[in-house]
Structure formats: C-alpha cells, structure tokens
Design goal:
The structure is a single chain. The chain has about 375 residues and is an alpha+beta fold. The chain folds into 3 domains: about 130 residues, N Utilization Substance Protein A, Chain:P, domain 4, CATH 3.30.1480; about 60 residues, Nucleic acid-binding proteins (OB fold (Dihydrolipoamide Acetyltransferase, E2P)); about 150 residues, GMP Synthetase, Chain A, domain 3. The protein is about 35% helix and about 25% strand. The protein contains 12 helices and 15 strands. Strands 7-6-5-8-9 form a 5-stranded antiparallel β-sheet. It is elongated.
Length: about 375
Amino acid sequence: MDTAELKKAIDLLIREKNISEDYIYEALELALVSAYKKNYNSLPNVRVEFDRSTGAIHLYSFLTVRKEDEVDEDGDLIFDDRIDITKKEASKIVPGIEYGETIETEVTPKDFGRVAAATAKQVVIQKIREAEKNNIIAAFQDKQDEMVSGVVSMEDAYNYYIDLGKAQGLLPKTEIIPDEEIKMGSNIKVYITKVEEGIKGPSIILSRKHYNFVKRLFELEIPEITEGIIMVYSVAREAGIRTKIAVYSENNRVDPVGACIGEKGTRIAHILKELNGEKVDIVRYDKDMATFISNALSPAKDVHVMITDTKKQESIVIVNDDNFSLALGKKGLNVKLASKLTHYKIDIKTFEQAKEMGINLIA
C-alpha cells in the first residue's frame, strides 16, 4: 500500500464510520513516530508530518538550541548533544536563531511506506473499535431509564442478547418476567437500566422486571400520560405476580383510572399481554394520605385508615374479618405493594385487635 492508497483508505474510513478526521490523523502521526523510533533506533527528537491532501509522509529529526551549562532542578546538566545543539553551532546553519528554537532535518527512510502501512492498519483498527464504542455510548446514554424494542438474537446460560440496531443489549435471565417464554428472533420490549463502558466494550443492561418497565408501558399505551393530562405518581411491583400503579389528573373532568383501563378494557389488555398475565391494580392517587392508602389496599374494601405519624410516615389500617386477608394479600403482598406505592408503613389490624389497642370503631 503506497501513501496515496493509504490516504484513500483513511478517507473512506472517515466517511463510513463517521470518525473525526483530526482524531484519525493525530493518532496516526503519533503511531508513525513510535514505529519510526522502534524500527530505526531513533531518539525521541523526531516528528512526523502527514500531508492530508496527498497522503505523503515526512519524518523530521530536530535539534533544540540549548545552553551547554543549563541544569535542571536537581543540578544535573540538561544538554544532550544527541538531541541538543549549541547556539554557536546552530547559528552557522540558521543565523539569528534563539535559545529554545529548533533546527529540523528530514530523515524519512526510503522504505518507510511499508512500515507506515502496517502501522496505519493497526491504528485504523484500534480507532474503529474506539469510535464504535464511543458512538454506542453516545447513542444509548440518553436512553438510560427508557424502554426500547429489539430482537432476541442469542442466549447463553445466564443472559439473552438483544439486537438493538446499533448495539447489542444484555438481558439477564434474572431480569425477565418470571415464567415468560423468550423466543429467538422475536421482537421484545426492554427497559434500559444502565449504560456503561466495560472492559470488553460498552454494556447496555436491560430488564423486563424493573418497576419502571410497567410505567413505560403505560406511557406507551395511554396517550394522556404522554400528553401530561394524566400523571403517574408511583409504581410498586412484584414482577410476574402483581403491580400497583398510582395515577391522577389535575383536570377534574378526566377519570385517570378509567382512561388507563380504556373502553372495554382495551388499553389495559395490551399492557397485561406484555406483562405475561401479571395482575395490575390501577390506583387513584389522592393528596389526602388516608384516602390514598385506602385506595392502594384495593381489592380490600371498608378500610379505616389512621395516620399515626406523618414524619415517620406510619399508619394503622383497621378492617373487618372479611377484608383482613384481602388487605394483607397472599404472603402479605398486597399490603407490601401498597406500602411501597404510598411510601407509608401500613399496619393492618382487625376490629378486635384495634379494640385491644384501645382503638374503638363501629364495625
């Protein structure tokens, strides 16, 4: 490969890979200096000049004009006759030259084109990898905490690999919805939890288990959420079993819960299908915390909420025997999710238990 061909190859790379011209040429010049020193036993006083219009490569050795008695901080002489020159000697070559200036001599070897081509190939490969890494990070950094679609391309014992177009994302098998079947070649929605640069390149970590995956599904299916007519206050999720999502609207004419369910349940049906049958409770958020906690404990009814400590965010909820198990939920899941949703500790008591505590309510 001659210098002209090298120039064409670099120009093609810059266009196809969208890599900065300066980025490539600066790296190439440094690499060529290193290659020259390695192959021709050169001293460090050398620089390379790459003509970007023709591809011609020129190497120059330079001597720095320095005082022979100049010393460093430790008192050691700095002058080195291999890379420095006295002002007296330099003036014979360049009259009027000053200390600190340099005299250059071209030292380009006749066969340097071969070394340059091999060096350029290594630099180009390295810079392609770096640029692709940087492009992936740049393209997906802004998409962290967002939902994207991809194609399931591979799997191993621990992960699914999702083709996201410009990059490949990693969906750990611990981050899928329990009991869902992931098929090779299928389109899949995933939530990006993290974009980071790892040892082997950029890592895009995905999830379908994250509670925000449900939030993004609602944003996708419910236009009023995207438009800001309906707001999502909070989401609590036990993936594969149940999710509670609290919604509200500042517009009194809008029913946020009804809008999320949709006519004949069409909107929520799409979400439930994506969630592999996971149950979803759409809860109406209320600024009155007692009302909000009552709503969050659905499907339990006839609940009596007492806010016992606003600073510690604690409450006691009293229910009749018929609703006690509903309020708790299987293995305590309903109250656990309600607590996460409201950010309040919820202590469920029966009327009898409340009476023993000195709390008297009419059942």
